[in-house]
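Researcher: Structure for this, please.
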Amino acid sequence: MKFNYTPKIQKIEDILDNFLPELESLSNIDDWQTLNFGALPQGVEITHFNQLVNPCRNLMKLGGKRWRPLFMVLCAELIKNSEDVDLAYKLTPLVELVHTASLIHDDIEDGADERRGQPATHLTWGIDTAINSASWLYFSAYSVIEKEVKNVQLKNEFYKMLSMQLRRLHLGQAMDIFWHRNPNEIPSKESYSAMVRMKTGTLASLSAQAGIIAGGGSFEQAEVLGKIASEIGEGFQVLDDVINITTGNKGKKRGDDIIEGKKSLPIILHLQKNPSDKESIIKNFEIASQEGIESSAIENTIQMLESSGAITEAKIYASKMIDNSCKKINVLYNNSNASLAIENLFTSLL
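Model: Predicted structure, C-alpha cell format:
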C-alpha cells in the first residue's frame, strides 16, 4: 500500500507558519501578542518580539523531517476518521516548537557549528539571544494548548502531559551532557537506552499521546501508545547516530558526533567487545575536538567501529526496535489504514 503524506505535511507546515509567523506580514499583530504575552506595557515594539521569534522561525523554516507532527496526526487517525482530526492538526506546533527549541539548546551545549546545512542559531544570533529565544519557545508550546483546547479538564491534562515530557527531555539531555563532559565515562547500553528514550523518545511519546487524546481516545490508550512511541524514538535516534558516522546526516558533515565526544550506541557496542580501545577512542575524541571536521581522528574512529561490526549491530538493533514497535501498533489497531501509514512512515527510514 502506498501512502502520500504530502498533503498532511503541507497542512502541518501552514499551521506551523501561522503559529510562529513572520510578524511584519501580520495584518493585525494584537491577537498573536495577546495569546503569547497578554496585555503589555507601552514601549514594547515589534523589534523586541523579533528577538524571540526570528531565531526560532528561521531554524524551523530550514525544514526538518516533520515526522513528529505527522505521527501525531496519524495517531489521531487511529481513533477517528482522517477527515475528523482537526484538533490534532491544530496541536502539531506543540511538538515541533519544543523540538525546535531543543535543537537550538542542543547545538549550544554540544558546541555544534551547523544545523540543517546552515550556521547554528547561536552563531548567527549570539548565544544570549539563542538561549533566550529557545527558552521562550518551550513556553510558547503551552499557548498552543491555551488556544486550541476548549475543555478545561482536557486542557489541564494536556498541560500535565507536556510538562512531564519536558522534564524528562531535560533529564535525558543532562545524562548526555554528563557523558560528553566526562571523557572517561562510558555509559552502559541500558543507560544509553534510558537517555535516548527521554531525550528523543519523549517527543515521540508526546506526539502519540496528544494524537490519541485529540482523536478522542482514552488516557489508557494514550499511555500504551506513548510507551511504544518512546521505543520508536530510541530506534530513530540510534539510526540517526549510525547515519552520522556512515553517510553523514543531512545538513551536517560525517562524523561530527565524534568531534562532540558523543557516546553513541556504536561506540558503546564497540567498547563492550574491545574494552582495550577505550583510551584510543577517548584520545580520538580529544584530537577531533581540537582539529575539527577534517581531523584524521574521525576516520580512524569510524574504521575501528566498522571493523568490529558495531555500526552494523547498532543499525540492526534500531531497525528491529522500530519494526517491532510498528507491529505492536498494527496489532492494537487491527492493521487499520492509519496504523499501516505509521508503519510505512517509520520503516521507510530503515
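Researcher: Any notable elements?
Model: The mean pLDDT is 93. The first helix runs from residue 6 to 19.
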